[in-house]
Queue: 2 jobs
Job 1
Amino acid sequence: MADAVAMFESGYNCAQSVFVTYADLFGMDRETALKISCPMGGGMGRMREMCGAISSMSMLGGLKTGNTDPENQEAKTANYELTRRMADRFKAENGSMICRELLGLSGREESAAPSLRTAEYYASRPCSRLVASAARIIEETLLVE
């Protein structure tokens, strides 16, 4: 959990911070993990929709229990149940799954350019805590089952 927060506080986005911390446990290299999770940051491309930390929880769940057979409805259902269980827990702990709601924003950002990471940035946002919440859920769900 501390590794995910440290990644976020070193400049990676929320999705990258969560995903890359655990992706190697499921056979993915760091560079690929950083690239594939990058666009999920800021509620997907800074549109402030689904929190990037939740997107990463879902992708990690896919690496663990994802289905590769389109006919296997049981496997799909099991993976979707896992995704819902983790997302529901995140929402219960944090009040929402939506980036803009978690940040107290009214809508989508005007610009796709990320905010500069300064001490004020980190102090004014709950993102470190949200990354820690997602990481804890992963550790207590995906890494024990």
Job 2
Amino acid sequence: MTNEKNTVIEATVDNLGINGEGVARYNGKAVFIKNALPGEKVRAKIIFSKPSFCHAIVLEYLTKSENRVVPDCPLFPKCGGCNIQHLNYSAQLLYKQDLVKSTLLHVGKIDVSVDETVASDKVLRYRNKMSLPVREGKNGVQIGLFASASHRVVPCEDCLLQPVWNKKLIELLKVFIRDNKISCYNEETKKGVLKHFVVREVEGCLYVTLVVTKQLKADAFADMLKSDFSSFVLYQNINTMDNNVILSDSWQVVKKHNEPKLVEGVMANIHPAGFFQVNDYIRRQMYEKVAHVLKNHDTNVVIDAYSGAGILTSFFASFAPLVYGIEINKQAHESATELAKNNGLDNMKPILGDVKDKIGDVLDEHIGKNIALVLDPPRSGCDKSVIEKINDCDGITNLVYISCNPATLARDLSLLTSYEILSVTPYDMFPQTVNVETLVTLRKQNP
């Protein structure tokens, strides 16, 4: 087949792809057109061609979709933080509902009703966490976000997905770098000290992390934070690895200032390395739904797999006789252990380890009891051995699966042959992006 690279075409977009690009047809194959929406007719230039598909960029919009809006962020679509900010919010919610339904059908061969997407209360400024690369560029220090599918930093002074504090923090970091002559990382030479700037807000407290290749004298930055923020914890993370992993296991606390004691109503400390959902409103909606589902059953044991810092696990401990939380991240496990101790939750049992190595022992220990299992795995989904152990266990009467990846969710649900799906609900954890969180409730099928 002829290579169509640099060919200019006219095409009508049929739908959105999994990365938010418009999908059209040309010469019998799919054409993925960035920043094009369904129903739009465009003149586009093919920039990449393969036998079964190609990628193109818009040269001219011949007709525009009624769902197209002017993006609020001047950096869209240059940076990789957002990919559907040009689509109005109602259409974003429908897109995510359709994405979950079509992925379940095409990947998992599961034809099931999918609820409407639960909307976020905010469509901008909703994230409680940011992670910005800090690089030494040709024109000096660059702090921002990576361009899509690239390690090229798009400088950013104010990310509109983050609360307003991100603008001030970026300003302070630039001053700290300048005044203290901090060298920033260069990916080509592998030299420079400051690599990333990671911040998470929990209950009004900013957990700020400087990711560095060697320890810095960071007291001056703590003083700068104190002058502008009433509650913060400043960390250094020493990361000498030459890969895409942002955080290492080497931590140092530089300064704590008015750290809160209560998180979601319980005494807890959230470590920056621990998992915590980025959208507070949607997290609470999901947690309340999961707790409601489990409360309505006579459950003896709850197993919270991939349990993070133990916040959701503590919800279960308020009504279930015995609750386990399995977590592989050491810092998150330590936070969960401290949470259980500080709140007198003797029935909450945090376990450090990989779910595939630990879940079998917990299930075997409670044979014959009514077990409720909550799965909230990373994007890669569950290990096949975990699915096999769940299928083989007769005691799991109720199962809740929380997923941030429709494809691995569909794969895993297709393998959970001992369970029937009761409900599938998408949640808009990530407005302005193609990412979607999905909560699935299941129950054991009768033999």
